[in-house]
Amino acid sequence: MYKLVIRPILFWFDPEKVHYFTFSLIRILSKIPGVPFLFRSLYEVKDARLETTVFGLTFKNPVGLAAGFDKDAKLYQELSNLGFGFIEIGTLTPKGQEGNPKKRLFRLKADAAIINRMGFNNGGVAEAVVRLKNNSNVLIGGNIGKNKVTPNGEAALDYEICFDALYDYVDYFVVNVSSPNTPNLRALQDKEPLTQLLQTLQNKNVTMPKQKPILLKIAPDLTNEQLLDIIAIIKETKIAGVIATNTTLSREGLQSEAKIEMGGLSGKPLTNRATEVIRFLAQQSNNAFPIIGVGGIHSAQDALDKLDAGASLIQLYTGFIYEGPNLVKAINKAILNRM
Question: Where is the active site (predicted)?
Fold first, then answer.
């Protein structure tokens, strides 16, 4: 139904406008008595064998929604009814910001991909916290970043502000230094500034009543030498794990005319590279830390490949847009089928 009827209609329109329209539609439908139950009955796979404990948290299933879809924590409860085991909100910044000028989101239908240069558009961490206070039972990750106007030398303070604000309301944190759409942000992935940033957050974390897992989200464009640095940094700072990967700047093999657009590429063209990064990190670290695999998951087999490469959990974004919520169900069923 989604791929045959709904998606062709949605794909006629501007992707950013469709995103907000879909948000509103899901919210309205979810207020109708019985509809949340209907969504769960259609897309949720309930089976205790799907439960997995990673970095001290128990996930009802290993399929999550990646950051960027529900930036401002406006729809996490409703989205959880579509079968996800966890929802990652953000990227959030200390102050709200508009992001980059529109048009900033592009479909590459021939490549089953998306290019975005959103630029951390969000209403600010304080607004998200208000909505997160209403959370009842959704496992939430908080993806945090810095404001565009904040110099890299002062970036740690922005991440600390978000950490403090979200601490009571999220189950784990994700440090996003890998988006290509905030000027100079990826420079924070260099060994020295990244170590300092993560150590600052970890030092704060250990003073809290209960430590929250801190993960690092990395770019797929890192070299093997840089990935080895990431492994060393995780060992030194003792953060909980990695999310691999964010969007890529590569345009190799693309067919769509929109490939000329600036921004981060996600979707099927990222499938193999994201899996390669996961496998490299797992093998070179001897599985020393958990990895959440994300990037180019458009089928159950794509998800299984990432789990086989060393991921403990996976996340969807572009695949969810192209394939619809039935992809969540298909992945969870595939996991069960090979147990």
Answer: 179
The single-letter code of the amino acid at 28 is I
181 is in an annotated binding site: yes
CB 229 within 8 A of CB 189: no
276 has pLDDT over 90: yes
Q: What is the CATH number for 319?
A: 3.20.20.70
Structural domains counted in the chain: 1
Q: How big is the CA angle at 175 (ends 104 and 187), to the nearest 5 degrees? A: 70
Q: Are residues 160 and 200 in contact, defined by beta-carbon separation less than 8 angstroms?
A: yes
Is the confidence at residue 223, as pLDDT, over 90?
yes
> What are 20-57's pLDDT values in tens digits?
999 999 999 999 999 999 999 999 999 999 999 999 99
Nearest 5°: the CA angle 118, 121, 126 is 160
Residue 217 marked ligand-binding: yes
Residue 1 pLDDT > 90, yes or no? no
143 is in an annotated binding site: yes
Q: What is the pLDDT of residue 183?
A: 87
CA pair distance 304, 284, nearest whole angstrom: 20
Q: Of 30, 41, 178, 179, which residue is the catalytic one? A: 179
Q: Which domain holds residue 155?
A: 2-248+256-337
Among residues 43, 50, 82, the alpha carbon closest in space to that of 337 is found at 50
